[in-house]
Amino acid sequence: MRRRDFLGTALAGATSIWASKAAAASSASPGSASSSLFDRVTLGKSGLSVTRVGMGTGMRGYHRRSNQTRLGEEKFHALLRYGFEKGINYFDLADLYGTHWDITPALKGIDRDKYVIVSKIWWREGGLPEMERLDADKLVDRFLQEIGTEYIDLVHLHCVTDADWPKKLAKQMDLLSKLKEQGKIRAHGVSVHALPALEVAAETPWVDSVHTRINPYGEKMDGPPDKVVPVLEKIHAAGKGVTGMKIIGEGAFRDDPEKKDHSIRYVLGLECVDTCIVGFEKPEEIDDFCERASAALADARVP
Questions:
Q1: Domain span holding position 226
Q2: Does residue 14 belong to any structural domain of this protein?
Q3: What is the DSSP secondary structure assignment for residue 7, as one 8-state letter?
Q4: Do residues 120 and 96 make contact, with C-beta atoms less than 8 angstroms apart?
Q5: Number of domains comprising the chain
Q6: CA distances (Å), origin 248, targets 30, 59, 258, 297
Q7: How far are the Cα atoms of 33, 63, 92, 157, 168 from residue 171, in angstroms, in the given order?
């Protein structure tokens, strides 16, 4: 078990100017027009109110390790804290990434209702050290203990790819629905990694929210944008939340400012995408993305 003590005394307190901006943004009405990156938008009918950019923790995530955990606890916790103080309130975790242990010590002293936690259940073969696959209720109980929280805002079934995923995962869906009734989770959905699965998510009432791969280049996506976007429009029109992933193409555009700008502007301009998550690995990447995204929103006045 990794120690949960928060390291880095330089991060004590949360009174930076960016934290003030985050607090001010939180007073915006859910679902209201948002022209600031740190204003809150609502994920469909889930009731979850998130900033237009969130922090991913699963870059090259596998076997409960990711590029973020490979930074070491002190640097990773500092990175999470920096993102929050910048104004971000949306944090994407997963059992697969091994990042459950990090969010609570990183945000020590911050009221739990000030940030939104996503976690994901890895149900596929491989990916985790153990072979045993447990039911969602047992897994979520473990997640709650690892995170150190009484509830998780959003739990996804991680990496659905087949059109018949609702049939394959019906038992887990039912268990997650019961956990939602019990207040252990606030919403449930799927992280999608294939177009047939995405199309089915649009038609599945159980889905509160989806994670979907989107950028203008089709990089690390389920299909070309002209095939994916119409499905996202259906999902959004059905009242489901939409979180975009792979905005930087899983790092493919990291060193290409022109592609980064185009992708950020493209995704933020899609009315069918509520928010996006990015797997930042250093504070400078947070600064760079937020500067570019804020400029895009200011120029386009994206609602």
A1: 44-300
A2: no
A3: P
A4: yes
A5: 1
A6: 27, 11, 11, 17
A7: 38, 24, 24, 12, 8
